[in-house]
Backbone:
């Protein structure tokens, strides 16, 4: 990676770290998981609960890319993240529109000790979106290496 690309990755990681810390404070100390956080929309975080999980996810992504030194993989990760995030948001809002009963009671979710007031369902949804991104990218990357 050249110095500009490296700077972009480092700044993205710092931005994610700030989102994570501020999000954690809003969720834990202020009990505000649903408060809007427009300053972190570039990370896909629309509310503070999003900022915690996406902040942690992009800290990991930035760290891995810094170690691997592959800017194309960074761009591919961001692109795939937004593909999955947008699909997830579409499904969430569609289902929310019609939800009466919740299939998984909040108290049964492992995120419920961190996210209160019905935010566990959102946390679980975005957690699995992050997992999908990691494994789709890994599959594409390992397939590329395998073909070499």
Residues:
């Amino acid at each position: 990676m050249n110095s500009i690309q490296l700077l972009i990755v480092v700044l993205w990681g710092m931005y994610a770290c700030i989102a994570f810390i501020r999000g954690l404070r809003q969720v834990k100390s202020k009990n505000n998981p649903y408060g809007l956080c427009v300053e972190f929309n570039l990370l896909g975080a629309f509310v503070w609960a999003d900022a915690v999980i996406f902040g942690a996810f992009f800290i990991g992504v930035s760290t891995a890319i810094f170690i691997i030194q592959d800017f194309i993989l960074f761009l591919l990760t961001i692109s795939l993240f937004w593909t999955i995030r947008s699909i997830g948001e579409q499904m969430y809002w569609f289902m929310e529109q019609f939800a009466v009963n919740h299939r998984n009671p909040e108290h049964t979710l492992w995120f419920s000790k961190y996210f209160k007031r019905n935010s566990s369902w959102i946390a679980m949804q975005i957690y699995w979106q992050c997992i999908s991104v990691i494994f789709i990218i890994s599959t594409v990357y390992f397939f590329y290496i395998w073909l070499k």
Notes: The chain has one domain: 3-147. The helical segments are 3-29, 48-68, 71-98, 120-147.
